[in-house]
Amino acid sequence: MPAIARHTVLVRSGCLLIACAVTALSQAALPPRLEFDVAAIREVPHSKGKFKIQEPELSLAGSRFSLAGSLRTLIETAWNLRQSQISGPAWLDANAFRIDAQATPGATDEQLRLMCQYLLRDRFGLTFHLERRQQPAYLLVRGKAGPTLTASTATGASIIKSKPGRIASASASMPGLADALSRQLGRPVLDETELSGEFRIVLNWTPIGQDAPSAKVRKAQKSQKDFPSLFTAIQEQLGLRLESQRAVVDTLIVDHINRTPTDN
Fold first, then answer.
1. Do 55 and 109 reside in the same domain of the chain?
2. In a shared domain, residues 116 and 176
3. Is 101 in the same domain as 141?
4. Is 86 in contact with 76 (CB distance < 8 Å)?
5. At what angle do helices 71-78 and 109-124 cross, to 10 degrees?
6. Helical ranges in the chain per DSSP H
7. pLDDT under 70 in the chain at which residues?
Protein backbone atom coordinates (compact mmCIF):
# COMPACT_ATOMS: atom_id res chain seq x y z
CA MET A 1 0.00 0.00 0.00
CA PRO A 2 1.82 3.15 -1.13
CA ALA A 3 1.87 6.31 0.93
CA ILE A 4 -0.16 9.23 -0.32
CA ALA A 5 1.75 10.86 -3.15
CA ARG A 6 2.75 14.47 -3.58
CA HIS A 7 -0.24 16.50 -4.71
CA THR A 8 -1.19 18.86 -7.50
CA VAL A 9 -3.13 21.83 -6.16
CA LEU A 10 -6.14 23.15 -8.03
CA VAL A 11 -8.05 26.23 -6.89
CA ARG A 12 -11.82 25.97 -7.24
CA SER A 13 -14.45 28.25 -5.75
CA GLY A 14 -12.21 29.62 -3.03
CA CYS A 15 -11.00 26.31 -1.65
CA LEU A 16 -8.16 24.02 -2.62
CA LEU A 17 -8.72 20.70 -4.31
CA ILE A 18 -5.75 18.40 -3.80
CA ALA A 19 -5.55 15.94 -6.68
CA CYS A 20 -3.30 12.93 -6.21
CA ALA A 21 -0.68 12.47 -8.90
CA VAL A 22 -0.88 8.67 -8.54
CA THR A 23 -3.45 6.22 -7.26
CA ALA A 24 -4.35 7.10 -3.67
CA LEU A 25 -4.64 4.72 -0.76
CA SER A 26 -6.84 1.79 -1.66
CA GLN A 27 -7.84 -1.42 0.04
CA ALA A 28 -8.45 -3.12 -3.29
CA ALA A 29 -5.08 -2.84 -5.07
CA LEU A 30 -2.32 -3.95 -2.72
CA PRO A 31 1.34 -3.96 -3.80
CA PRO A 32 3.45 -7.10 -3.36
CA ARG A 33 3.59 -8.08 0.29
CA LEU A 34 6.67 -6.87 2.16
CA GLU A 35 7.28 -7.96 5.75
CA PHE A 36 9.77 -7.57 8.57
CA ASP A 37 11.93 -10.65 9.17
CA VAL A 38 10.84 -10.65 12.83
CA ALA A 39 8.50 -8.19 14.57
CA ALA A 40 7.27 -7.70 18.13
CA ILE A 41 4.65 -5.19 19.30
CA ARG A 42 4.39 -4.34 22.98
CA GLU A 43 2.32 -1.81 24.89
CA VAL A 44 4.37 0.95 26.49
CA PRO A 45 3.86 0.65 30.28
CA HIS A 46 1.88 3.43 32.02
CA SER A 47 1.15 5.11 28.67
CA LYS A 48 -2.63 5.51 28.99
CA GLY A 49 -3.42 9.07 27.88
CA LYS A 50 0.11 10.24 28.63
CA PHE A 51 2.27 9.16 25.73
CA LYS A 52 3.04 11.67 23.00
CA ILE A 53 5.61 11.71 20.22
CA GLN A 54 6.10 15.11 18.61
CA GLU A 55 7.87 13.83 15.50
CA PRO A 56 7.48 10.11 14.80
CA GLU A 57 10.31 8.88 12.61
CA LEU A 58 11.29 5.68 10.89
CA SER A 59 14.45 4.41 12.55
CA LEU A 60 16.65 1.67 11.07
CA ALA A 61 20.04 0.91 12.64
CA GLY A 62 21.65 -1.90 10.69
CA SER A 63 18.84 -4.44 10.60
CA ARG A 64 17.09 -3.19 13.74
CA PHE A 65 13.89 -1.18 13.29
CA SER A 66 11.90 0.60 16.00
CA LEU A 67 8.83 2.83 16.09
CA ALA A 68 6.73 3.93 19.06
CA GLY A 69 3.53 5.89 19.51
CA SER A 70 -0.23 5.69 19.86
CA LEU A 71 -2.17 3.69 17.29
CA ARG A 72 -2.96 6.96 15.53
CA THR A 73 0.75 7.79 15.43
CA LEU A 74 1.63 4.35 14.06
CA ILE A 75 -0.98 4.72 11.29
CA GLU A 76 0.19 8.28 10.60
CA THR A 77 3.79 7.15 10.20
CA ALA A 78 3.07 3.96 8.24
CA TRP A 79 0.96 5.78 5.63
CA ASN A 80 2.92 9.05 5.77
CA LEU A 81 -0.15 11.07 6.74
CA ARG A 82 -0.94 13.86 9.19
CA GLN A 83 -3.10 13.27 12.25
CA SER A 84 -5.79 15.48 10.71
CA GLN A 85 -5.98 12.98 7.82
CA ILE A 86 -6.91 10.04 10.08
CA SER A 87 -10.47 9.53 11.30
CA GLY A 88 -11.20 6.79 13.83
CA PRO A 89 -12.26 6.07 17.41
CA ALA A 90 -11.03 8.47 20.09
CA TRP A 91 -9.18 5.68 21.87
CA LEU A 92 -6.64 5.54 19.02
CA ASP A 93 -4.71 8.04 21.17
CA ALA A 94 -5.30 6.25 24.49
CA ASN A 95 -2.39 3.80 24.67
CA ALA A 96 1.08 3.66 23.17
CA PHE A 97 2.80 0.72 21.53
CA ARG A 98 6.36 0.01 20.49
CA ILE A 99 7.35 -1.92 17.38
CA ASP A 100 10.73 -3.65 17.48
CA ALA A 101 11.61 -5.56 14.34
CA GLN A 102 14.34 -6.76 12.02
CA ALA A 103 14.48 -5.65 8.42
CA THR A 104 16.91 -5.95 5.54
CA PRO A 105 19.78 -3.50 6.12
CA GLY A 106 19.46 -0.51 3.81
CA ALA A 107 15.68 -0.80 3.45
CA THR A 108 14.22 2.47 2.18
CA ASP A 109 11.64 4.56 4.04
CA GLU A 110 9.03 3.50 1.50
CA GLN A 111 9.80 -0.18 2.15
CA LEU A 112 9.72 0.32 5.93
CA ARG A 113 6.36 2.08 5.70
CA LEU A 114 4.95 -0.77 3.63
CA MET A 115 6.19 -3.30 6.21
CA CYS A 116 4.51 -1.27 8.97
CA GLN A 117 1.26 -1.13 6.98
CA TYR A 118 1.07 -4.91 6.64
CA LEU A 119 2.07 -5.32 10.29
CA LEU A 120 -0.79 -3.08 11.47
CA ARG A 121 -3.23 -4.92 9.21
CA ASP A 122 -2.11 -8.34 10.44
CA ARG A 123 -1.61 -7.68 14.14
CA PHE A 124 -4.32 -5.10 14.87
CA GLY A 125 -6.83 -6.23 12.22
CA LEU A 126 -6.82 -2.74 10.70
CA THR A 127 -9.25 -2.13 7.84
CA PHE A 128 -10.06 1.29 6.36
CA HIS A 129 -11.35 3.18 3.39
CA LEU A 130 -10.42 6.51 1.82
CA GLU A 131 -12.56 9.63 1.59
CA ARG A 132 -11.89 13.15 0.39
CA ARG A 133 -12.79 15.70 3.04
CA GLN A 134 -12.48 19.45 3.22
CA GLN A 135 -10.32 20.72 6.07
CA PRO A 136 -8.13 23.71 6.98
CA ALA A 137 -4.72 23.87 5.31
CA TYR A 138 -1.86 26.29 4.74
CA LEU A 139 -0.03 27.44 1.61
CA LEU A 140 3.72 28.01 1.93
CA VAL A 141 4.44 31.03 -0.31
CA ARG A 142 7.13 33.64 -0.82
CA GLY A 143 7.11 36.65 1.48
CA LYS A 144 6.40 40.12 0.15
CA ALA A 145 10.10 41.05 0.23
CA GLY A 146 11.16 37.71 -1.24
CA PRO A 147 12.89 34.67 0.27
CA THR A 148 16.03 35.08 2.38
CA LEU A 149 17.17 31.49 1.95
CA THR A 150 20.74 30.26 1.56
CA ALA A 151 21.42 27.57 -1.04
CA SER A 152 22.77 24.38 0.49
CA THR A 153 26.32 23.23 -0.14
CA ALA A 154 25.88 20.01 1.84
CA THR A 155 26.28 16.60 0.24
CA GLY A 156 24.50 13.39 1.14
CA ALA A 157 20.93 12.65 2.10
CA SER A 158 18.59 15.48 3.07
CA ILE A 159 17.69 15.27 6.76
CA ILE A 160 15.26 17.68 8.44
CA LYS A 161 15.26 17.77 12.23
CA SER A 162 11.98 19.00 13.65
CA LYS A 163 10.67 19.56 17.15
CA PRO A 164 8.35 22.11 18.79
CA GLY A 165 10.11 25.47 18.44
CA ARG A 166 12.74 24.47 15.88
CA ILE A 167 13.18 23.11 12.37
CA ALA A 168 16.72 22.75 11.07
CA SER A 169 18.41 21.15 8.08
CA ALA A 170 21.70 21.49 6.24
CA SER A 171 19.89 20.63 3.01
CA ALA A 172 16.11 20.80 2.62
CA SER A 173 13.77 21.24 -0.32
CA MET A 174 10.68 23.41 -0.07
CA PRO A 175 8.35 20.35 -0.16
CA GLY A 176 10.44 18.92 2.68
CA LEU A 177 10.07 22.13 4.70
CA ALA A 178 6.31 22.15 4.02
CA ASP A 179 6.13 18.57 5.30
CA ALA A 180 7.99 19.48 8.50
CA LEU A 181 5.74 22.51 9.04
CA SER A 182 2.68 20.33 8.50
CA ARG A 183 3.74 18.07 11.35
CA GLN A 184 4.19 21.05 13.66
CA LEU A 185 0.91 22.70 12.71
CA GLY A 186 -1.22 19.55 12.59
CA ARG A 187 -2.73 20.36 9.20
CA PRO A 188 -1.60 20.07 5.56
CA VAL A 189 0.97 22.59 4.34
CA LEU A 190 1.32 22.82 0.56
CA ASP A 191 4.46 24.17 -1.11
CA GLU A 192 3.54 27.02 -3.47
CA THR A 193 6.92 28.82 -3.34
CA GLU A 194 7.97 27.58 -6.81
CA LEU A 195 11.53 27.38 -5.42
CA SER A 196 13.58 24.42 -6.62
CA GLY A 197 16.79 23.07 -5.14
CA GLU A 198 17.98 22.51 -1.58
CA PHE A 199 18.44 25.17 1.11
CA ARG A 200 19.99 25.53 4.54
CA ILE A 201 17.09 25.91 6.99
CA VAL A 202 17.23 27.18 10.56
CA LEU A 203 13.83 28.19 11.90
CA ASN A 204 13.25 29.00 15.58
CA TRP A 205 9.98 30.04 17.19
CA THR A 206 8.24 30.00 20.56
CA PRO A 207 5.75 27.12 20.80
CA ILE A 208 2.33 27.88 22.24
CA GLY A 209 -0.43 25.74 23.68
CA GLN A 210 0.29 22.13 24.56
CA ASP A 211 3.67 22.21 22.81
CA ALA A 212 4.95 25.06 24.96
CA PRO A 213 7.78 24.08 27.34
CA SER A 214 7.11 24.14 31.08
CA ALA A 215 8.46 26.91 33.31
CA LYS A 216 11.04 24.45 34.64
CA VAL A 217 12.26 23.64 31.12
CA ARG A 218 12.38 27.34 30.17
CA LYS A 219 14.45 28.08 33.24
CA ALA A 220 16.89 25.33 32.31
CA GLN A 221 17.25 26.77 28.80
CA LYS A 222 18.96 29.94 29.97
CA SER A 223 20.76 30.49 26.67
CA GLN A 224 17.61 30.23 24.58
CA LYS A 225 16.27 33.45 23.12
CA ASP A 226 12.65 34.51 23.19
CA PHE A 227 11.54 33.79 19.64
CA PRO A 228 8.37 35.02 17.90
CA SER A 229 5.42 32.86 16.87
CA LEU A 230 5.91 30.38 14.02
CA PHE A 231 4.00 32.57 11.57
CA THR A 232 6.18 35.60 12.36
CA ALA A 233 9.39 33.58 12.52
CA ILE A 234 8.96 32.08 9.07
CA GLN A 235 8.62 35.57 7.59
CA GLU A 236 11.50 37.13 9.54
CA GLN A 237 13.93 34.21 9.29
CA LEU A 238 13.17 32.68 5.88
CA GLY A 239 11.32 35.35 3.94
CA LEU A 240 8.34 33.03 3.45
CA ARG A 241 4.68 33.15 4.53
CA LEU A 242 1.92 30.76 5.52
CA GLU A 243 -1.52 31.51 4.09
CA SER A 244 -4.63 29.85 5.52
CA GLN A 245 -6.88 28.03 3.04
CA ARG A 246 -9.52 25.29 2.87
CA ALA A 247 -8.45 22.10 1.10
CA VAL A 248 -10.02 18.83 0.04
CA VAL A 249 -7.57 16.15 1.18
CA ASP A 250 -7.42 12.38 1.24
CA THR A 251 -8.54 11.10 4.66
CA LEU A 252 -8.04 7.57 5.98
CA ILE A 253 -11.24 6.39 7.69
CA VAL A 254 -10.67 3.52 10.12
CA ASP A 255 -13.42 0.92 9.68
CA HIS A 256 -12.06 -1.56 12.21
CA ILE A 257 -9.03 -1.88 14.48
CA ASN A 258 -8.42 -3.94 17.61
CA ARG A 259 -7.33 -2.21 20.80
CA THR A 260 -4.49 -4.70 21.34
CA PRO A 261 -2.35 -6.67 18.89
CA THR A 262 -2.33 -10.42 18.49
CA ASP A 263 0.43 -12.28 20.33
CA ASN A 264 4.01 -11.86 19.19
1. yes
2. no
3. no
4. yes
5. 140
6. 71-78, 109-124, 174-185, 215-220, 230-238
7. 1-31, 47-59, 157, 209-225
